[in-house]
Write a structure and sequence with these properties.
It is built from five helices and two strands. Strand 1 and strand 2 form a beta hairpin.
Amino acid sequence: MAEELDINAPTEELNFDGPSEDLDVFDCPKCGQTIDASADVCRFCGAKIDHAAAQKAAHLLARVDQACSDASYLRNAAVIMLCLPPGILVGLSRNPRFIQHVGFQNTLIGFCIVILLVSSPFPLWTLRWWRKYASLTGGDDDFQNARKVIKAVGTGTAAALLTFGSLLCLVLLFKFAHT
């Protein structure tokens, strides 16, 4: 017989809306194992659990996990952004008639504008990350790595903005000086 699907039944799906209130877990202060914050005793070591401290620790762990997730997203987006310039250059090198038709200066101007548009949100996103998660203190290696990733993404994209912005200004000055 076929089972009927109950659309109101709870499902085990990923939650893409950030930390869930249903998943309050924290590390046991005695043994370090991850346990449910609503437990009275640790199921691994039997230590009594202070519910107020458990809720506070669970909230902190959820914020640290979200900070690491956001940093990972920014890192991946920045890596994808770094693949764009070489891809454009390879495409242009395979079609030299495009550069001849449009002109080298106009091609360079367009290239700089694309890089500036693509990289412009990253410094703002990294500043948003710092504003949101700078107050967190965590000795967790993943969280420390997330901080390093955010610093690298912010400085790398800020450097790209300065470099390609300066190059765009130089090309425009050269172009208008010779017209």
